[in-house]
Write the structure tokens for this entry.
Amino acid sequence: MLVRYRVFWRPMDRGLIADREILVVEDEMMLRKRVAAFLEKAGAQVVAVDTLAKARAALKEWAFDFALVDIQLPDGEGLDLLQERAFPETTSVVVMTSEGGVQRAVEAMQLGAADFLAKPFDHEELPIIFRRCLRQEQTVRLLEHRQEMTKPETDGLF
């Protein structure tokens, strides 16, 4: 007897998210729960909160690999976290919103967001977005390394 299983994750996608710590800051309860469940099913450790205050508290306790942050929250804007530099450099921040368009996306990127996601979105986009964030981070590290390698040595010359 032939048994078929539906495959939701390619191995690379699951490996990308598995064991990652991800912060989800979203005030819409159903979206927050669906995103968290999707990421947890992929093996991520997820902290899902609905306000800026709870996000700030979570950031004091944990170091996250990724953060999905809604712009419009009950107690302010998710961009406030970027302006405050609340995220460590090792956290790739993806800003989500259903309003604002290109101008808000540019503002988020200028404040340090790694990417921008327009709502509504398909949850299957998340591994693609996270992969793009990791590639961007690797590119930055590579450029920094190359710059360091091309610096002239001045040990003891002056």
Q: What stands out?
A: Helices lie at 11-17, 29-41, 52-61, 79-83, 101-110, 125-150. The chain has a mean pLDDT of 82.
